[in-house]
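Dear colleagues,

For the upcoming journal club I promised to circulate an example of a predicted protein-ligand complex. I picked one with zinc ion because it came up in last month's discussion. The inputs are reproduced below in full, followed by the predicted structure.
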Amino acid sequence: MCRICGGVVNEFLDLGRQPLSDAFVEPDETADEFYYHLRVGVCESCSMVQQLAEVPRERMFHDSYPYVSSGSVRMREHFTRTAHDLLECESTGSDPFIVEIGSNDGTMLAAVRAAGVRHLGVEPCGGVADVARAAGVRVRSAFFEEAVGAEIAAQDGPANVVFAANTICHIPYLDSIFRGIDALLAPDGVFVFEDPYLGDVIEKNSFDQIYDEHFYVFSARSVQAMARRFGFELVDVRRLPVHGGEVRYTLARAGARTPSAAVAALVASEDARGLAELSTLHAFAAEVDRISRDLVGQLEKLRDSGLRVAGYGATAKSATVTNYAGIGPDLVPCVFDTTPAKQGRLMPGSHIPVRPAEEFAEYGADRLLLFAWNHAEEIIAKEKDFARGGGRWLLYVPEVRLL
Ligand SMILES: [Zn+2]
């Protein structure tokens, strides 16, 4: 049953037994790993693409959640630009107030604070919230939901902007989120969120965008229907090049603003390509299977030819591809990553050891499987000595290929 509208959900993709994508395990703790069956379907009524089973939120988002928004130069720049966009276009009135749901380490709100604008982050993960507080960002430690929205409105007054990046698609219980936003938002305020876009996932075969935390994969069509259901209206969309292709959705209260031409254009382009049709989604599932087999074939060839292989970027999304394709330390002996909280641990499910990025040069890899493909440009430029020394990058999005 659809988590948004109660309609019939048809499964189109079975990604098998999967661990929690950000649960990097200690070498002696592999026996206790949590697994669930990752299946994805689409709603017949509202077109929402969603997982069929829910992982309890406390298992995914807790005090040692390792992902940080500021981990990439490009993402830091993106969020600073985002803050300026919100301040220039949306924060009306003499004393605007901006709330971010899932404020992580405060990368976006730090720019709002620097502009002297009232702000509040709502963040359930203690570790990243403390990083934000150390930078002077106001953070409330909580999962955002109906009661939290009402409490913030009572304490700080209505918000002109409620923003969320890579957070709304994480939350199955969006009815409560919308009620909280309804309680918090000023009458002419906007709810702006950005998340991975179904159009990009299908076009790039980026099936690794689907993992425990990404419960929904949004499209303009499904967000439009969801907004209507909860008394809001989709009034603007903007495609973003970050995280492998996202869309920034702007919602206002129904009737409060005139939707931009971009909304109708994106919905029409989705309908024209049959984005939410089962035939399109089944074809995508077949591609997922083919690419996974290609990747394993390529890795087996590299291993058999005696080349030294490693992974680069122990991303959350790499859990999906390694566990679905069955890639373990026999094919990728280790993965290099800059996040201290992941180093010395094993990748979830696949148990590939994570090593500090500083040890990368000394390891002397011939081929690097780029799990963090969404940061390909930044990483390949940073590690230019690797290619200069004859090394080659192995990518699997949108196709398996050596660079
Ligand atoms: Zn539905």
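Two points we might discuss: The mean pLDDT is 94. Residues 2, 4-5, 7, 43, 45-46, 48 surround zinc ion (CB under 6 Å).

See you all on Thursday,
B. R.
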